[in-house]
């Protein structure tokens, strides 16, 4: 099938590459000329495991191409996927300017039936706005062309995006059109062979499904962080509590890890946006507001522990930070807990020596020549001359480091672990003092 994707970010590029990989003829369009130039030159602008060979292979096979030409992009696909960003507005609601710009562009250039498929995460009611935007452009051109609008929210996880797209748990499609329904079924047929993963519903329910999923996951994290904070005050070990509750199949072990707060481009903005949507229909989303507020303070828990350890005297201290991306296997730094930590450390006069396996150039792009930031080539280099080590992201390579050498290198043998990677006994054998999240009174 002929498919156009607007937006070549994490979602758009993965969607385009995976659809091309099963044989569809895909054009990816982006307004960012530099991104498109890179893609045309065979470079992948983001770090996502497994994405590069798929993009290369399908581009070479002529099934995947990249352009900044809106008119050509609209002309190409019978299906027009919108996968552009929906960042938070000033008040936390989703900013729809990019989504609606694409809808208008489609209306400006289409010359026959199109299915406009919204893959971006958008508030309930956006399907109507997209329909109105397309229709307004057609009216302006004096044309009466048939088109359908579909909501097809994306559930992929950065870091595991290819597998999530290729083997989805579910494919949610919100539509009121039989024609669009059949086209979407055909598009996703190769991903839906083992058993039927397609869940059809109305557009509003599909739009809400995406927010509900992310809000539920964020709620699990904030809930566990609250239990972790309580554990510290009550002398309990949240890791034991986690295993204790996870064994109940109604709760399960997934997504109940305590830590230094959730980040990324989705949970923070989606929880906020859903709460603003609720406020917009005179409903106070008390649970969602609490989830957000627990997370905002959780992002400062590591700083508070470091500051407490050094008795508030952080001026001139050098802190090694391992892990900058908001989670492992991505270079995405949006809303990453590491940023809250580093910014608080700089404010307190401390210096940061940071290492991340993939997010170094993204950190460089965001903080440039920030005073008090040294980007280090290895995790060992980050320790040299440092007073303490803080771990923000659970990259695999941090799981079994050389503890003896950490103890010998740091001026104070202390590790603050925002992801509960180790056991206190293990570290104390090497002479290290260990602070984790929610693990008893000494925390
Ligand atoms: P992103 O910021 O990585 O990419 C968005 C891209 O859209 C950018 O390259 C930008 O240049 C491009 N763009 C902006 N305006 C455009 C236009 N008019 N025409 C063409 N391209 C345009 O965003 P993302 O992380 O891929 O997220 C996209 C959407 O998918 C968001 O709504 C997000 O909430 C949702 N989502 C993201 C994830 C994720 O893990 N990142 C997962 C599921 C859903």
TrEMBL record:
Reaction it catalyzes: UDP-alpha-D-glucose + 2 NAD(+) + H2O = UDP-alpha-D-glucuronate + 2 NADH + 3 H(+)
Lineage top rank: taxon: Bacteria
Keywords associated with the record: NAD, Oxidoreductase
Domain UDP-glucose/GDP-mannose dehydrogenase C-terminal: residue ranges: 320-424
InterPro entries reported for this sequence: 6-PGluconate_DH-like_C_sf, NAD(P)-bd_dom_sf, UDP-Glc/GDP-Man, UDP-Glc/GDP-Man_DH_C, UDP-Glc/GDP-Man_DH_C_sf, UDP-Glc/GDP-Man_DH_dimer, UDP-Glc/GDP-Man_DH_N, UDPglc_DH_bac
Gene Ontology molecular function: any one: oxidoreductase activity
Pfam families per record: UDPG_MGDP_dh, UDPG_MGDP_dh_C, UDPG_MGDP_dh_N
The keyword NAD is assigned to this record: yes
Pathway, per record: Nucleotide-sugar biosynthesis; UDP-alpha-D-glucuronate biosynthesis; UDP-alpha-D-glucuronate from UDP-alpha-D-glucose: step 1/1
Enzyme class: oxidoreductase
Signal peptide: none
Keyword Oxidoreductase included in the entry's annotation: yes
EC number: 1.1.1.22
Entry's family note: Belongs to the UDP-glucose/GDP-mannose dehydrogenase family.
NCBIfam families: NDP-sugDHase
The protein's name in its UniProt record: UDP-glucose 6-dehydrogenase
Source species: Marinobacter xestospongiae
Higher taxonomy: Bacteria, Pseudomonadati, Pseudomonadota, Gammaproteobacteria, Pseudomonadales
